[in-house]
Design a protein that fits this description.
The chain is 79% helix and 0% strand. The chain is mostly helical and 281 residues long.
Length: 281
Amino acid sequence: MSTTTLERTATPSSVHLTFGRVVASEWRKLFSLRSTWWTLGTAVVLQAGMAAIVGAASRAVHSSGQGDLGIDGAQVAAAGLQFSQLAIVALAVLTITAEYSSGQIRVTLAAVPRRTPVLAAKALVLVVVVLVTAVVSSALSIGAGKLVGGDTISFTLPGAETARIIAGAPLYLVAIAVLSLGVATLMRHTAGAIAALMGFLLVIQTVFAAIPWKPLQIVSPWLPGTAGQQLLASDSSVEALRAVPDHVGAVLGPWAGYGVLVAWAVLALVAAVAVLRSRDA
């Protein structure tokens, strides 16, 4: 009788456990964390603030009679991306590691035994939140840059190129968020995952670009941060680099570079799914 009772009480929950309900649960959990609000706010402030600084620098150079910095209005949207991505990485990592640190992950995985929908729902919620935040940040960045820089910040690139660079900032941050979620799921530790991602996206990328050693120069274009930022480069800068006779390593186009970053993100997420399904919480 007890077995029958358990089966009857378990059946409704299994019937009503839809992916939509898992997504709704993950949405509530994400916004119940105080860290979500301050990481998103920090991302917006850093990106827009750096755009304002660029605008101020452009105005100061112009006022001094030294010409212009030559910064296009579209590129102002991505001026603070290196800094805002730090906040996005922290948000993505905490999306999963906060549950591990509190022990709530056991409850989550008990409610969704298949486990894959949990990570898929977290990724979907994270993508939507980061995309909306990044679009707002880019719009505020352009506004702040123009407000402070005035006529020294102008849009001179072709329309398609301008649209690609402005849209590139949100797309870049979305891919970085998914990559970070995958790495954090593999590591399950907040500080360790953030340190690993910062080292991978910033330190290693900078070191590889700075050291004139051929093996590093060959690998450097395929690193996720380096490749993804090609989406924000102007066509003229890409062509100029390709024209360098002694240049070592691949010169990826904007969308090819972004494709490499997306491949890194998908690989991390697939590995995270495999590990999440195979090990204990």
